[in-house]
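Suppose a colleague, Dr. K., hands you the sequence of a protein chain of 300 amino acids and asks what its three-dimensional shape might be. Before reaching for any lab equipment, you can write down a predicted structure in token form. Begin with the sequence itself:
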Amino acid sequence: MQEFKSGFVTMIGRTNVGKSTLINLLVGEKIAAIANKVQTTRTAIKGIINTPNSQIIITDTPGIHKPKHKLNETMIETSFTSLQDADIILFLIDATSKEIGRGDKRILEKIKEANKKTILIINKIDLIKKEELLNLIDIYRKEYNFEAIIPISALKSKYREIIIKEIEKNLNKGPAYYDIEEYTDQTLRQLAEETIREKALKLLQDEVPHGIYVEVEKMKLRKNKKNEDIYDIEATIYCIRESHKGIIIGKNGEMLKKIGRMARIDMEENFGIKVNLKTWVKTKENWLDNANIVDKFKLK
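The predicted structure, expressed as tokens, is then:
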């Protein structure tokens, strides 16, 4: 009988490189917000991958970027701190890079300091020619002794097995730390907040910058008239300017209704239970530099 292995994997990379898409693919469930914007992931989200012979606890970290305020600094600190606790690091880079940019250089320095087993994942290979890929592999191979270099497109499920097998190969013998039915350490409240924020970012595009955060103020399970379980969820979307509030609500409240409808459908699918969602929008200026709020995004 094959020995059971387990371990902790940290995924790191610049913003918008596809980390959240990849963690959702690997876990097989949607646990991280995905939007075509930088800094979509703010906290270190853990996903749990269970296979017949292993349990992999994988952390998706906030993207590395130039900090502009306290929240950015906290996000970067979270990413780099998580490298110290990892058994294996997954370093995700963009295939369209022609060289090692400043952000990736900084990550490489931290990987060298941590001196952990690292797998290099080159994402978005569908956007480049084979010669460009070979050139990029050559550049990175000279920088660090990676356990493996895996070119992928995180949108294609065929790469899931390849990455998981490579991770398993580098794991040590160990126990299952979580129940095999679990796929994340996020609470339902956190997943609800993530879902609402993701829908807001997707629908608002560039109209409202990243200065929004969501707080679920009420989450209560009850039975409806048909004796079915239903979650009553009340959430507030906070923004930094009064002008943003109007954009989030939209004409006749249409935008807020759309955000709520999309988030509710997603939650019902993910939670496997009916959801009654109510959302509000409030302005909270300077929250990006408010230590009490920003501390929520620190690695626990």
